[in-house]
Amino acid sequence: MEFDGERILDGINLYFNDHEFLTLLGPSGCGKTTTLRIIGGFLTPTSGTVTFDGKVINDLPPYKRQINTVFQRYALFPHLDVYDNIAFGLKVAKLPKDEIHRRVNEMLEIVSLKGYENRSIDSLSGGQQQRVAIARALVNQPKVLLLDEPLAALDLRLRKDMQNELKRIQRSTGITFIYVTHDQEEALSMSDTVVVMDKGRIQQIGRPEDIYNEPKNAFVADFIGESNILDGVMLSDYKVRFFGRVFDCVDAGFNPNEPVDVVIRPEDIDIVPANQGHLVGTVTGITFKGLNYDIIVEFKGFKWLIQTTDYHSVGSVIGIRLNPEDIHIMHKSEYSGLFGDYSSYSAEYDELTEDAEDEEE
Amino acid sequence: MKRANRFITILIFIFLYIPMAVLIVASFNTGKDITQFQGFTLNQYARLFQDSGLLKLLGNSLIVSVLASFIATAFGTVAAVGIHNLNPRMRKAAMTLTNIPMTNPDIVTGVSLSLLFVFVGTQLLGQRNSLTFWTLLIAHITFNLPYVILNVMPKLKQMDSSLTDAAMDLGCTHVQAFFKVTLHEIMPGIVSGAIMAFTMSLDDFVISYFVSGLDFVTLPVEIYSYTKKPLHPKIYAMFTLLFLLILVLMVAMNLIQLYADKKKTASHRAGM
Amino acid sequence: MKKNNAVLLSTPYLLWMAAFTLIPLGVVCYYALTDPATGAFSLRNLRDLGMYLPVLWQSIVYSLAAAAICLVLGYPVAYYIAQCGQTAQKLLYMLVMLPMCMSFLLRTLAWVGLLQDTGIINTLLGKLGIGPLRLIRTPGAVILGMVYNYLPYMILPLYSIIVKIDRRLIEAAEDLGCNGVQVFGRVILPLSVPGILSGLTMVFVPSVSTFYISQKLGGTDTVLIGDVIERQFKQGNNPNLGAALSLVLMVLVFVCTGIMNRFGGDSEEGGVIV
Predict the structure, then answer these.
(1) Are B167 and B177 in contact (CB under 8 A)?
(2) d(CA C263, CA C273)
């Protein structure tokens, strides 16, 4: 897919199954919205095909597709009230009046907006507008519902509620949901399948657990949760060397002595007294996070992020143990060396969090 | 400082309205001279309505301005939607073209159109009298179009573009989406564009002066040709009536808008 | 597909505007470069332009004076309106607009009645034992006519810029130690520059090209370029010379708006009134 001469999507090959909750996850500008717009029919790909029920629909305009969309900022029609917004698609399709009435009321029930029929869109809260947008799309009984960051404009509490709500609606209607978000937590908690995208390419497709536990490359490892990513060498199956030490691991199938990226999740690391550790390091920073402490530990000049429920003061020397299943091995990729280094921890980490919050505003 | 500004503002409004007051007072004058008020009378109004020539001129003006502003509004709205969706380079070129009649002095627009009409009429079509009602109408549509475009374009820009996507997503064709959604969103721009086009057209003298022929003349052009001799006071009566009409229109428009705003904020509060 | 629709919808308009703005300007050039008698190519009209340089200069001076006066008078008014409450703003805005909708010919004629030697002002002055003063047929009367007719074109763009200035910027300036005058000089005035520029343009352009105001309020020594053009077309029957003069006027105006736009930045909104 090219847009104004710029390559936005490259080699996207995706299959959607019926009744599935599938999420396109990636940072802004990764091509997830473009993918969605191609599926919705708002963009025509410059190459490649879009098929639906076995038919190529590249040139089928949006109004002829059995697909509906929940737009990013809802795109509710300000000149119509709640009822007329929901009834819009049915009226365009010229359904009989009583059927429109029945289906709209059914939908109002599902999204818990009974009694709001004649309210103007302006008078609704963000969460209510969100529900209207969902109802307006679902009332047409599409085969596929596309949702473009539908919860991005809501505050945290409401977002959690709506996540459950959406999941419930998806289960009860059995409609395929294709959901776009940059929020990894949202993606992991709601989806049957997660598609991680970056730079117009699919980085990994899989069940949420697989994506989290077996990231395919440094980008995925870093984007989904926190990760320490180290250079290592795969000596043979189940043996990896990093930091001058050989560890047992559960991965196999690499070439002998292949350089690899080693991922260790901050919450998987066990802290032990210094004399019992596989590695010994010095605590250089600690931040209270509510559920746990994020501590930064320096090992021979490299800084790791470790999450622990115990307090360790700055300057104390601790040991760590790594179990074989805590060590994840990935082939080297274009992302190697870009992520998973916490040397400049405090500044970078805070900045990233702020950015993420800004985006969500 | 605020008090000083207030004082200046009052003086400026007096300055702006004194000449109009003079004209209105003159419309009730028994004498013909605008500078001397001799006595009160409503005769000028009666004479105005008996003067079929004057009423015909007013009718001419209304015909041209209603037609021109109506055509320009429909044509301009469609064009604005098109221009809005052009790529940025083409859009810039289109806006430059739109701005030419806006920045060009009226006299240049009038002269250039009149030369075009005369050139095409006499040299190419061999007409003897090439300035007609139609040339006048074309000229008015041409200078009205930019007002419509410049009022509609910002509304299109403000409009959430996903609204039309949403309409199409829900089964509308491009045309249906325009009538069901886009039109509602840009309506305020269309209305203000149409009103501006109409008043500009109605009041236009300079361009009409150059492009109108002898067989179809608008009121301002005729007033200009009168002014060699003293004006008849019934013209002042017409001015007064037009003044009242426009005043009423403007107040009504403002009240409607005020009412709509109030309703909106009220329903906003109810939702909180 | 969307692109094709856009082209389809905009092309008729672009063709119309090309036919009735660009081509006429081409025709003006054609007339300017042909001999009135023979219709052959000639530079005579351009050579004759030299005669009219003093008139052109006078037009520019009068219009600049009118634009400057409009700025000085219009700014306090725009500023005052912008500070009023919502309803008052709407009302005052309407009152500024209203004169623009009324026949400018008749309103200018009213000034004749006010200013002429036996006019209303002189009559009133006479009762006070002053005068009669020579008010009409002076450069001052012409400039007054320009200021009177085009003052709303100054007030409206100024108002729409000033009213958009964020109140918090003024509070921030006060917070940082500016007094009232400094707030105005350092924050409000710089921020209203786009409005000032578009106001100046919108007063200057119609002023420099007017012929009615100078005919009614001016005398024999206050002839403007617009008068000369009008005479070439309507009385002198030398449209070729008139075309050449129009060309000069157009170049002048485009140079002026070019300069204004350079300093004013985004011109897409600057030209819109109301």
Answers:
(1) yes
(2) 19
Q: Is the pLDDT reported for residue C271 higher than 60?
A: no
Measured between alpha carbons, how far is A175 from A80 in angstroms, rounded to an integer? 27
pLDDT value at B94 more than 90: yes
Res A2: pLDDT = 44
Tens digit of each residue's pLDDT (9 = 90 or more) over B157-180: 999 888 999 999 999 998 999 999
The torsion angles phi and psi of C165, rounded to 5 degrees, stand at: -65, 130
Residue C28 lies in a domain: no
pLDDT at A346: 45
Mean pLDDT for the stretch of residues B213-238? 83
Number of separate domains in chain B: 1
Q: Which domain holds residue C249?
A: 51-263
d(CA B97, CA C21): 8
Instruction: Assess if residue B31 is contained within a domain.
Output: no
Check if A66 contacts B (Cβ < 8 Å): no
- With CB atoms and an 8 Å threshold, state whether B168 touches A119: no
Measured between beta carbons, which residues in chain B are less than 8 angstroms from residue A138?
A: none
Domain hosting B204: range is: 54-267
CATH of the domain at B157: 1.10.3720.10
Q: Would you call B108 and C253 a contact, using CB atoms and an 8 Å cutoff?
A: yes
DSSP β-ladder status, A67-70 and A201-206: unpaired
Among C13, C199, C4, which Cα is nearest to B97's?
A: C13
Does A1 have pLDDT greater than 60? no
Determine the distance in angstroms separating the CA of B155 from the nearest CA of chain A, rounded to an integer. Answer: 14
Query: B234 pLDDT band (50/70/90 cuts)?
Result: confident
Which residues in chain B are closer than 8 Å to A142, comparing Cβ atoms?
Answer: none
- Cβ-proximal residues to A313 (8 Å cutoff; 6+ apart), any chain: A283, A286
Q: What is the pTM of this model?
A: 0.82
B80 domain-assigned:
yes
Q: How many domains are contained in chain C? A: 1
Distance between CA atoms of residues B100 and C14, nearest Å: 12
In a domain, B173, yes or no: yes
Return the half-sphere exposure (C-beta side, CA atoms, 13 A cut-off) of residue B14.
6
Residue B12 lies in a domain: no
- C39 domain residue, yes or no: no
For range A200-222, the mean pLDDT: 88
Closest-CA residue in chain C for B235? Answer: C106
In chain A, what residues touch B87 (CB-CB under 8 Å)?
4
pLDDT at C25: 93
- The alpha-carbon gap from A86 to the nearest alpha carbon of chain B, in Å, equals 10
CATH classification at residue C190: 1.10.3720.10
Q: What is the largest CA-CA distance in chain A?
A: 79
What is the percent of chain A with per-residue pLDDT over 90, rounded to a whole number? Answer: 21
Q: Cβ contact (<8 Å) for A72 and B271? A: no
Residue B229 sits at the chain A interface (C-beta within 8 Å): no
E strand or H helix at B45: helix B43-50
Q: Is residue C42 part of a domain?
A: no
Q: What's the rounded Cα separation, in Å, for the pair C74 and B11?
A: 11
For all residues of chain A together, what is the average pLDDT? 84
Of B168, B171, B267, the CB nearest to A93: B171
Nearest-by-Cβ selection for C110 from B19, B103, B206? B19
Q: What is the pLDDT of residue A17?
A: 77
With respect to residue C10, please indicate whether it lies within any of the assigned structural domains: no
Task: Report chain B residues whose CB lies below 8 A from the CB of C109.
Answer: 23, 34, 227, 231
For residue B252, what pLDDT is reported? 85
Say what the ipTM of the complex is.
0.88
B139: helix, strand or coil: helix
Lowest mean pLDDT among A119-123, A188-192, B64-68, C263-267: C263-267
Minimum-distance CB partner of C105 among B86, B149, B220 = B220
Chain pair A-B, CB pairs under 8 angstroms: 74
Number of Cβ within 10 Å of residue A237's Cβ equals 13
Element (DSSP H or E) covering residue C256: helix C239-264
